[in-house]
Automatic annotation (TrEMBL):
Top-rank taxon, per record: Bacteria
Domain Carboxysome Shell Carbonic Anhydrase catalytic: 39-173
Pfam families, alphabetized: CsoSCA_cat
Species: Marinospirillum celere
Protein name: Carboxysome Shell Carbonic Anhydrase
Entries under InterPro entries matching the protein: CsoSCA_cat (IPR048539)
Length: 353
């Protein structure tokens, strides 16, 4: 992403966004990538789900060198979830049961993130409080165990920290032990299976075998990040609010505030996101010529499924716009609305308005 995209006129930012979406779909559908996914799933059948923050820095496929489409993401502002939320619980259970009915085990990676170099680069959803974010991740793990069992033989909940300065994972055991992958280098790879066995003795061997490529990939990736002198974005410069699902292409830091359709009360995260956008404009971090409200819903098949996705996306767009208009009327004057549906098999985002 060009570093100056945040400062460009709103129309140029919108054009950049659609190009980013098209490029993501093209890459996902590329024959080599398709075959790589099929081969990978044949060798590593565990179904991997990730619960994570909307922050674009948390790009797990990139940070673990995993083919696109292997890790099933659930993204929400702050990585805040509650499995008691009816829609969230239904989606997660459906994803888990689909895998189990196909004879696959499930690994649910529950993430929190922070910056070791500067607290202000942490998770805005928890006011950059690492301990609060970690505690929430542990609470989600407890909820997963309450639903799917505590023996972990079919569904394994794994709490993972994500240190964004070096893109390094921190694995948490159920006993409170840690394995910080930033402390390891490529020369340590032969000993990783034993370290995972010691850290996660209750993890089924197949799941541990399928976790291993992610761990090895992250060690290699984070080692490269430490060798780079990369610019670390400190300030919030988001200029778009995304409501719904289907935003996997948005793995660019400080661009979007993503609100999943999971909570029964979407007005609270929408207002928090609107407040961040307004602050970004007032502080001169982004131009005040407009911001984008983008809603999206995925579908699998043409026909009723696609039509239903469009209705859901339109409802979420109207709901979010109404909340912003009522509570932030001056900001609402600068709002540009776009509604889309996402063809899940190809990750193609199509605007419908």
């Amino acid at each position: 992403m060009p570093g100056e995209i945040h400062t460009q006129p709103i129309q140029e930012r919108l054009d950049w966004l659609m190009n980013l979406s098209r490029n993501h779909s093209d890459q996902f559908c590329d024959p080599e990538n398709y075959l790589a996914r099929q081969r990978y799933m044949a060798e590593h059948p565990t179904h991997i789900i990730a619960l994570k923050c909307m922050d674009g820095r948390l790009h797990l496929p990139h940070a673990t060198r995993t083919p696109l489409g292997i890790i099933r993401p659930f993204r929400n502002l702050g990585g805040i979830f509650d499995l008691g939320w009816p829609y969230m619980g239904d989606l997660l259970e459906s994803s888990v049961m689909e895998a189990i009915n196909a004879g696959r085990r499930v690994l649910i990676i529950i993430t929190y993130h922070y910056s070791k170099g500067d607290k202000s680069r942490g998770c805005a959803g928890f006011n950059c409080n690492k301990e609060a974010a970690m505690e929430h991740a542990q609470d989600i793990r407890n909820q997963v165990e309450a639903i799917f069992g505590r023996d972990h033989q079919t569904v394994y909940p794994l709490v993972c920290g994500f240190e964004t300065d070096e893109d390094a994972l921190i694995l948490h055991s159920t006993q409170g032990d840690l394995l910080d992958l930033s402390s390891l280098e490529e020369s340590d790879l032969p000993g990783i299976p034993q370290k995972l066995q010691q850290l996660l003795p209750d993890m089924p061997s197949q799941v541990r075998h399928d976790l291993l490529p992610l761990v090895e990939g992250n060690i290699q990736h984070s080692q490269e990040m430490r060798a780079l002198q990369r610019h670390l974005d400190i300030e919030h410069r988001e200029w778009m609010i995304c409501v719904g699902r289907g935003f996997d292409f948005l793995h660019a830091p400080n661009v979007a505030l993503i609100i999943g359709p999971y909570s029964p009360d979407l007005s609270d995260p929408i207002l928090k996101a609107a407040g961040i956008i307004r602050s970004n404009m007032e502080q001169g971090r982004i131009p005040d010529d407009g911001f984008l409200l983008l809603s999206s819903a995925p579908y699998m098949e043409p026909g009723p499924d696609a039509a239903r996705a469009e209705l859901k996306a339109r409802f979420m767009a109207d709901f979010a716009a109404q909340v912003i208009q009522e509570q932030q009327p001056e900001l609402a004057k600068k709002m540009i609305q776009r509604t889309a549906r996402l063809h899940w098999p190809t990750r193609r985002l199509d605007l419908v308005s």
